[in-house]
Amino acid sequence: MNGESVKPPAPDVRLPGFADIERAAAHIAGLAHRTPVLTSTYFNDRTGAELFFKCENFQKVGAFKFRGACHAICALTPEQAARGIITHSSGNHGQAVALAAAMNGLQAVVVMPKDSARVKLDAVRGYGAEVVLCEPGTTTRQAAVNALIERHGYHEIPPYDHPDIIAGQGTAALELLEQVPDLDVIMAPVGGGGLLAGTAIAARHLKPAIRIIGAEPANADDAARSFRSGQIEPAAAARTIADGLRATLGVLNFAVIQRHVDDIVTVSEQAIIDTTRAVWARMKIIIEPSCAVPLAALLEGKFDARGKRVGVILTGGNVDIDRFVAG
Amino acid sequence: MNGESVKPPAPDVRLPGFADIERAAAHIAGLAHRTPVLTSTYFNDRTGAELFFKCENFQKVGAFKFRGACHAICALTPEQAARGIITHSSGNHGQAVALAAAMNGLQAVVVMPKDSARVKLDAVRGYGAEVVLCEPGTTTRQAAVNALIERHGYHEIPPYDHPDIIAGQGTAALELLEQVPDLDVIMAPVGGGGLLAGTAIAARHLKPAIRIIGAEPANADDAARSFRSGQIEPAAAARTIADGLRATLGVLNFAVIQRHVDDIVTVSEQAIIDTTRAVWARMKIIIEPSCAVPLAALLEGKFDARGKRVGVILTGGNVDIDRFVAG
After folding, report:
1. What range defines the domain where residue B124 resides?
2. Which of A24, A61, A149, B154 is deepest in the core (most CB within 10 A)?
3. B38 lies within 8 A of chain A by CB
4. Residue B214 and residue B188 in contact, taking contact as beta carbons nearer than 8 Å
5. pLDDT digits (tens, 9 = 90+) for A99-151
6. ipTM of the complex, rounded to two decimals
7. CATH number of the structural domain spanning residue B144
């Protein structure tokens, strides 16, 4: 940490801690996959680092988001569960809530923007949730959720800015550091910031000297700007292929990130596309473009990891392959 | 086995045995990857079986072929190695020989048909081997190899019909049965038959009652026809997207297959394409179409595995994604 970027959170916010991540791990055990860690000689050679990829693309619903959603739903009170649950999502969180709800015998409503990838819409419906379409944009989505809550009394499972979500997402780093204990660096992409916050809490507790690095598309760099200015900066209309990273940084997540994260780096769209395709071709795994952002940062030299052991969380694999290749 | 299909090999052929596979495993340890086994709730639900996928698409050079080539090269005498080595291949075996040769400081020549996928030509050259292009067709390829041997004195590493190759390929099943000991069925695709032969020797020794099933494209069904007639049937010009399975069944491989394999089933081109894409979308791994053939057979009901624990060897991931999607 070197002492920098350590700022107290606002006094009325309870930040989740490592004990919350341990509780989440106990909740999701047997429901979520303990995903494997893969290595790649090719990417080691290109970066000069020793890379360990935590494959959350193999997670239930194909993304780490299942961890947070599953924990949040397991943690509901009977009264909350009985009201039925609702969320909004551009995709992976929606699938995660839909499946976790189905596993717990609950009814879920997922508000999704009209321009969501078809594969994600189909998947949410396939898990038995009701999809309500809205215009794109976080504000529009939340308004649609609020209207439905007012009408039906649903309980909301927020997509990222909530202690249970952060704790659930943190279980990926907890597992990674059990699988590969001696990491020098851990990297995660940052959109709303739930994964990076959870990662930071787990990694800082288990390995205080570890470097914790977030990575973001340059075209959706609100987290990097906020990290530098010390206050949440508004997101511009994000034009990035990394559709999982278009969300605005959450307040709670930002407080955790300020406390524990060492840096947030940004990468170009071309680097994201090239890296996504290189991972497909070389590692023989499907990742979605949002996943490729930390590795793209290493390949572009945005963070020098030569000689270091670096854990990289590959966040998901839900990509419309035809659309991506054709584009 | 139920006693059927057990025929003696020709008296002058020494069939490799389980001890050869154990020797191969010792040779390749530390050079080849011990590949992971993945599972899929989705495909379990669709087949009614419990499936265990041995991910040789994560193997060095992206295919199981590295096992046989690596063992065959490690087993060379110093005199053979000094002559330089040559092989012919439509792709994966060529990459495997090229890399295994480079690892052992040897020079390799790989004769490849002009219509090989670009990604495979580039990869063979990338490992430092010399590529000699020839017209498509196994006879043409072998003639080109013979001419180069006559001129330069190279030692040939055959692609599949050789005891060392069979023994090397058998290490995949050996590992799978260490990772998942209690399989009822093991399945592998069959082209030249080296993988199926090695799989059969390993599996029959370790688990005598296991069912051993080969799978083949209906458009390249020479192994299935040979299995039924009891003699090697000529291959028609194979029109299949499963380019790894166009080879004609090897003599030695056929003798092993007759002795140990329970059945060879065939699948349609459409089933191969649909299954390949379903594995990409659902398991988030890249497989080449040849890989998809055993799973396609399960999905098409060509082999009823309901209630069984089935090991499936996913053979490789070297596919030109753009070409496959566009096609």
Report:
1. 65-156
2. A24
3. yes
4. yes
5. 999 999 999 999 999 988 787 888 899 999 999 999 987 788 889 999 999 99
6. 0.84
7. 3.40.50.1100
